[in-house]
Structure formats: C-alpha cells, structure tokens
Design goal:
- The chain is an alpha/beta fold and 572 residues long.
- It is built from 18 helices and 19 strands.
- The strands form 4 sheets. A 6-stranded mixed sheet has the order 5-4-3-2-1-14.
- The radius of gyration is 27 Å and the shape is elongated.
- The N and C termini lie far apart (85 Å).
Length: 572
C-alpha cells in the first residue's frame, strides 16, 4: 500500500486556501498511486486557531468546507483531514463544545471521524479551553488490492504519554498502548508540533522507543510554517516496528512524499533528509521561516528596521534579507552625537553585504527639540536614563512613521537577554510588529552571526568589527553594556538556569555565579515583566519563551525565604 504524507504550510482561518492545498496534495497522491493521504492536525483551519473556535459561524464554515473538500477529492483515495467538530453531547453533560478531530474522506463523503484523546494545557497549549477529550481508541480499516490494513489514528499529544519513555504518565490513558492492544497494523499521528531547539531529536527518540516497545510501525506527519509566535518545523518521519528510521521530510519547508507500506508491517526506505549540522543552522532555518511567514501571512511585502551597527540589528537584518530578499528590506541609520563613526560605517557595510536599501536620519535636531520642550519641567534635575531613552523613543517614532507611511512591517531587534532583564526601551527599540530574536540569547546572537559568515566561505556577511567591538547602546559618551549588566556569558548562564531550569537564586549561586549578581538579575527579570507584556510577538525557538506560554503576573512581589513560620500579632 502506498501512503502519501503532505507536510503543509497552513494559514490560520483561511479555510478555502487550506482546503486548496489539501486538494492539490490529494491529486498528487492519486497520481502516484497512493491509497491514503495524511495531512496535519487541524489542517483545514490551521493550528492554533485559538478563539476563532469560539465563533459558531467559523465552525459551521469549516464543516461546509469539509463537505466540499470530500466531494472534490479523487475517487478511490482516502484522505485524513484535521478539523474541529461539534461535540453533540456538550449541552447535556456540560462538556466542551468541540472535538479536535480527524475526518476520513473517501468517494465524495465524510465517512468517519476520529477525536483527539489527550489535550495539552501547558506552555503554548490551551486545548481544554475549546475541546472535549475523547475516551476511545481510534482506528479504521483500509483495503488495498488483496490486503486489508488496520490503521490506528492519533493526534499530536496522543503520542506524548508513554510512561516507559518518560518515566511517568501525565494522563490517565496511553492511546498508543490501546491501539497496540487493538492489534493495529500501523499507527499514524497527525501533528501540529511547534519547534524548539533540539525537539526533533526528542520526537524521534520517543517515536523510536514506542515503535520498538509496541512492535508497531509509526508514521508521523507535522505541520510546517510560522503562525504568529510559533514556528512549525515539519520533519515528518516514519519508523518501522524495529525502530529503524525509514523516512524524514524536509525541515522548515513544505514537502510531499509517498511511502510504500507492506503487509508485513514495515515501510520501504524513502527520502531521509539529513539532520542540521549545528544548532545554529537549525535555529537559523526556523527563524527565517518564522519571519517569512509572519510577513506573508500578515499581508506585508517589505520590512523596515533600525541599523545601529551592532550585533543584534545585524542578525535581524540578515534574517530579513534571507526571508524576503534584500531588495525588500529597508535599514534606517539614526545617528546621535553619541553614535561612533565606526557604528555608522559598520551598518553601511552590513547593508551593502546584504543588498538592502538604507536611509540615514540623524536625530540631533529632534533631540534638541525635545530638550527645549522639556527644559522647564526637567529643570533642577540631572540628565539620566530618561534623557538617554528619549533617543531610543525618537528612533522608534521615526521607524514607525516609515512603516505607517509606506505599509512596511517594522521588526524590532532586541534579544532575549535584554528582554529578560529589561535592558530595552518601551515605545523605542521595543516598537514594531515582530520581535524576531526575542527568544535568542545574546551569546547565541554572536554564534549565529559567526555561523552565517562561515556558511559561504569567502563571503563575509556580518562585518568583523561588529563581532569584536564591545556591545553598547551608545546613548551617552563611552557607554558599554557591561556598565549596566554582568558580562553576557555570565548573564546568559544565570538566565538559562532561572528561566529554563527554574532554579532558585540559591541553586544558581551554588553553581558558581556571585550571589549578589544573581539576586540583582532575578530582581531585574521580575521588574521587567510590564515591559515584556507590551512587546511585539516574538518568534519562539526555545522551550521557554517570552510569549504565549509565559504567564507571569505584573503586579506581584516575591518574598525571600525567611526560614521560620510567620506569626500574627493579636491585640489583647
């Protein structure tokens, strides 16, 4: 039996365009003799649809589009399509209004539905808000010539609860174990699994483990593309029952493949796309995809950003140029009296290397105008952070003016280290529609730029001077980032332990960093929450990003451990 997998880049809510992609894949599958076509989770509406699902008319349109799609697919081909289906028992038993479902389409009809059993509610996921979990195993039979196959159907999270792999069970049931007990010939999984660094290795390790444990071949198809802050990396795979990898689709690209599955219960080897050679290569491809799709799906055609001559804006400019072409990127130099000549020269050289257009808008005159206007109310005070940040806010206003005038997308250039500790300016450098590298720590920014320069030997992209000069906001004479922050390698280590590993200040200090520095960083992270809440959406590349999955209070205080019980004074 030939099974086709369509690794699709879907636009959330665009039902007709998504259905068209599915239909095109169906005709391609039929032309290559496939009996079955798999598409990703919620492929009809795109993932995650979020509160679009609360609109009954949207759900009704999805049902209608599904019926049209069923009528249009080639005869004799079975297609599994991800959709949201009304829960008929919701009103009677108090359940959620929808199921996260897979519809089986064949010969002009919707023949069968399969519902997701395990609903994630952690990190970026909030499926219990919309969906009712289903309680039964999902499978169907499919005949091909003289053979009949029993195919188990799972949806994304249904894979992620094998207690033997994880050492614990998060949910009460294990859908894979139930399907194995039902003696299916093949387990398929239709996913919309967001990217984070190293996640594909985890997926493949988990899938291999389950294939071997249950002696079942597994076929996993994943969505690809950027949807808001989430990036879906594709990387669809197939494993034989002995745990052997038999196919791997493209990373961060749409793909289509047809696999041969035999009645002995195994796949024939197909294309196996190689793994990335480094973490930097993996991150780069994900970020480029995220930027490209954000621009395309939001209806923009050009990007504008500030070029400071620093490392962060260099990386963002390179990402933008790769994502949509240098001819569609505009870099704006906005020098002040504190901007070094070297920074201007570095920015111009970078722009030349990338083939992007530049504008130079000096801000001295605007700074003088602000100083004159504020002179009376600022009288008797010493110049400080407020005056420094005015420069950033002037630059943000100019960039937004260009974006507003010409319909550009403004991309901000702040990195994760700065966002974590609040080393950024509201309504200034934080302005924009997308924060491209807000989940990229400072040391990784340097690593990515060095990798970019090595990618094509002899073709320097980021000027060497940008890589070697001390980082500085250049908002006052002789300013350096190290005047306000610990060295970035030390800061990033503390932030990783605090944000990703959830270590306490005591645990972090025990690993080596100075306790006073640790306490200061912890306090800076907490105080910066109100800034992060107002930031542009940022592309998620780690397992803990400042975005959809980050839910910290703003008006809050954390007390230090006192090592004793609290007592309440009572009046006699």
């Amino acid at each position: 039996m030939k099974i086709a997998i369509a690794q699709l880049n879907l636009t959330i809510g665009h039902l007709t365009a998504n259905a068209r992609q599915i239909l095109e894949a169906a005709y391609q599958a039929a032309s290559q003799g496939a009996s079955l076509l798999l598409t990703p989770e919620l492929s009809l509406c795109g993932y995650p649809p979020r509160d679009l699902l609360l609109n009954p008319s949207f759900v009704a349109e999805m049902e209608l589009q599904l019926q049209h799609l069923a009528e249009d697919i080639p005869k004799g081909l079975t297609v599994l399509v991800g959709t949201a289906m009304p829960n008929p028992d919701a009103r009677h038993v108090g359940g959620k209004p929808l199921f996260n479902s897979i519809a089986l389409l064949r010969d002009g009809e919707v023949r069968q539905y399969f519902h997701k059993r395990l609903l994630p509610t952690y990190d970026v996921f909030d499926e219990h808000r919309y969906f009712e979990p289903h309680g039964e195993s999902n499978f169907f039979t499919l005949s091909d010539d003289e053979d009949e196959y029993k195919i188990g159907v799972t949806i994304c999270e249904d894979l992620w609860n094998d207690e033997d792999f994880w050492g614990k069970r998060q949910y009460q049931c294990n859908p894979i174990a139930d399907l194995a007990a039902a003696n299916v010939d093949l387990i398929v999984n239709l996913s919309a699994s967001p990217y984070s660094l190293g996640k594909q290795k985890l997926r493949e390790s988990m899938l291999r483990h389950m294939a071997i444990r249950y002696q079942k071949s597994v076929l996993y198809v994943n969505q690809v593309g950027g949807n808001d802050d989430l990036i879906f990396d594709g990387n669809s795979v197939a494993f034989n029952a002995n745990g052997q990898l038999m196919a791997r689709s493209n990373r961060c690209e749409t793909d289509f493949a047809v696999l041969d599955f035999f009645n002995a219960g195994h796949f024939q080897t197909a294309k196996i796309t190689p793994e990335p050679e480094s973490e930097d290569e993996e991150i780069w491809s994900a970020l480029v995809l995220g930027v490209r799709d954000y621009v395309r799906k939001c209806g923009f055609s050009k990007i504008v950003l500030g070029l400071s001559g620093g490392i962060d804006s260099a990386l963002v400019a390179a990402l933008a140029a790769e994502a949509i072409g240098g001819e569609n990127v505009i870099g704006v130099l906005m020098s002040s009296p504190y901007t070094s000549t070297a920074s201007v020269e570095d920015a111009i050289e970078l722009a030349k290397n990338l083939g992007i257009q530049t504008h130079h808008l000096p801000i001295q005159g605007i700074m003088d105008s602000f100083s004159d206007t504020l002179s009376e109310v600022f009288a008797g005070t010493q110049p400080g952070v407020a005056e420094e940040n005015l420069q950033s806010r002037i630059r943000g206003t100019l960039l937004m003016a260009l974006a507003n005038k010409f319909g550009y997308l403004l991309i901000s250039t702040g990195n994760k280290s700065e966002m974590a500790v609040g080393y950024c300016t509201l309504y200034g450098d934080m302005g924009g529609g997308l924060a491209a590298i807000s989940d990229v720590p400072k040391m990784r920014v340097y690593s990515l730029c060095r990798w970019l320069n090595r990618r094509q030997p002899g073709q320097e992209i980021v000027p060497d001077n940008i890589l070697i000069k001390p980082p500085s906001a250049e908002l006052k004479p002789n300013q350096r980032d190290r005047d306000s922050l610990p060295p970035y390698d030390e800061l990033d280590d503390i932030l990783h332990r605090l944000i990703h590993e959830h270590q306490s200040a005591e645990q972090i200090a025990a690993a080596g960093p100075d306790r006073e520095i640790v306490d200061r960083v912890v306090q800076m992270v907490a105080r910066a929450e109100f800034k992060r809440r107002q930031a542009a959406p940022g592309l998620k590349i780690t397992d803990r990003a400042f975005g959809t999955g980050w839910r910290m209070p703003i008006a809050a205080r954390r007390t230090k451990p006192v090592g004793r019980s609290l007592t309440v004074k009572r009046e006699e």
